[in-house]
Specification:
Layout: H1 7-27, H2 31-42, H3 49-65, H4 72-95, H5 98-117, H6 126-143, H7 148-154, H8 159-183, H9 189-212, H10 218-241
Helix pairs in contact: 1-2, 1-9, 2-5, 2-10, 3-8, 3-9, 4-6, 4-8, 5-10, 6-7, 6-8
């Protein structure tokens, strides 16, 4: 046992974190999509705090390597809108049982996968940025998956701008969500310590992603991982419902 969690579970979580961090280093998001369904299946008590702590830490590695092309004007609309969204997410989290949380995580992943595969293009303007920020805050706090609403808006931008803008969003947004959960009185110190223990997995994934970037086409990696995400989410949905 490691901090109250079976060592085998910790090893599997470490593996999916490396995969998720690798994908995020390549396309800008992926840690929550890959890890959330698996972590919820293995130990739902760790969600969403474990991934929120890691989601706040991983983007710092991205920004250390590159911090240009960040869309600060867009973030000026997204981040304030995350505040009320975070409050809604904390409320939902307080109402969720572990079974409800499993269904919510599975549905968020499946919706994100479907949106990622559609040619839907939403105009980037203050109203859509604020709406995406609100949804991101609510979904990110309740399920740890808050990137897709904003990523959908930026999907036509350059890969570097997507990665760096989302990195700022994830760091600030996850910190907001953690503060909200702490104020709600449900944050566990052991989960925070476990996240610190697993942080090296993020560095390993970031290095792997940097090596793969430009070598393997983004879409091939992306489609493969999205297929794994969809399969994990479906398994989690069936497990939670049945």
């Amino acid at each position: 046992m490691i901090l109250g969690v079976d060592s085998g579970v910790v090893a599997l979580v470490a593996l999916v974190l490396v995969v998720g961090a690798t994908l995020q280093a390549i396309v800008g998001l992926g840690l929550g999509l890959v890890a959330a369904p698996v972590v919820t299946i293995l130990d739902p008590a760790l969600m969403p705090e474990l991934l929120l702590v890691l989601a706040a830490a991983l983007p710092l590695l991205t920004l250390m390597g590159s911090h240009d092309e960040i869309d600060w004007r867009g973030l000026a609309w997204v981040l304030p809108a995350r505040v009320p969204g975070t409050a809604v997410g904390v409320y939902f989290l307080a109402q969720f049982s572990e079974r409800h949380l499993g269904v919510a995580v599975a549905l968020m992943v499946l919706i994100a996968v479907v949106l990622s595969l559609t040619p839907l293009e939403v105009p980037v303007r203050p109203s859509t940025l604020a709406t995406a920020g609100f949804i991101s805050g609510a979904a990110g706090t309740a399920t740890s998956i808050g990137g897709p609403p904003v990523a959908l808006l930026y999907q036509r931008r350059s890969p570097r701008q997507i990665r760096n803008t989302l990195a700022v969003l994830f760091t600030v947004g996850a910190a907001m969500s953690l503060v909200g959960i702490w104020l709600g009185g449900t944050f566990e110190v052991r989960v925070f310590l476990l996240a610190l223990l697993l942080t090296p997995c993020l560095a390993l994934g970031a290095v792997a992603g940097a090596q793969l970037r430009g070598v393997v086409p983004d879409h091939r990696i992306r489609y493969g991982v999205l297929a794994v995400c969809a399969a994990s989410a479906l398994a989690l949905l069936v497990r939670s419902v049945v």
